[in-house]
Design goal:
Layout (H helix, E strand, L loop, with lengths): L1 H15 L6 H9 L8
Length: about 40
Amino acid sequence: MTLGLIGLIAFFWALNNNQYEDLDGAANRILFDEESDDK
């Protein structure tokens, strides 16, 4: 029961801190490699 409560607290913390604001951004960033000038 305690583990479930910790999970719920972590979930609501993530919602309040906008962790789910941009769900597609990270998925697209890993697919499209930006070229850097550090050669």
